[in-house]
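Q: Could you fold this chain for me?
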Amino acid sequence: MFNKIKLWRKTQKPSTLRDRIEQVKKAQIPDHVAIIMDGNGRWAKKRALPRIAGHHEGMKVVRKITKLANELGIKTLTLYAFSTENWKRPKNEVDYLMKLPEEFLGSFLPELIEENVQVQMMGYKAELPLHTLNAIEKAIADTKENNGLVLNFALNYGSRAEILDAVKCVLNDCKSGIINENALDEKTFSSYLMTSEMADPDLLIRTSGEIRLSNFMLWQLAYTEFWFTDVLWPDFCAEHLIDAIEVFQGRQRRFGGV
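A: Sure. Below is the predicted structure, expressed as structure tokens.
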């Protein structure tokens, strides 16, 4: 497969974005793409704008990338929207970020329903403001019958906390006799994570030039292909997603094998 892709790239030179989209659809599309959307604040600072302006612009990109991911046939798109550490940011910025789900889903939800996209969320709901949680839960309820792309928001999510909570649940179930500790394996442990009903990501994208995971899906990314770009999230566009998928399609995934 790898040699065929290399040969295809030498013989085919798509001239337009539409051509590139059609070409990547002919090869293996990652089932699950996860994105660390980074750089909103720096995008705003470069333009002498408040940080919230960057978040507002980044929200528009979420809309565009979701529509393209759906068109490409990606099954799950997980977006790191707010981490458990992000509460340390200035209050006005946090307050604005907590309003974004209402604003985004309020305008985009009809399109998501029409395009058969299912909204999901992973993260700790108890700490979220009620208005934020209501917006998310309405979108989840209104799209639960859809069976197309799963748009999964990682909101108030932290991987270390997720793993620790899973360990506690496993220990409790072992004590209760629900599971046998000797039978515990990776598959069983994964069923205790917030992503229990999802496949692990095939491709991770991080924008803004940072090369780290920032406490994001540490268990699930064990054999994920990584793609990093210096592009700030508000400047991320369809061409960049296609770039990432083209690189993914040119890699050989061995999962620890030869």
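A (continued): The chain has one domain: 2-7+31-141+159-249.
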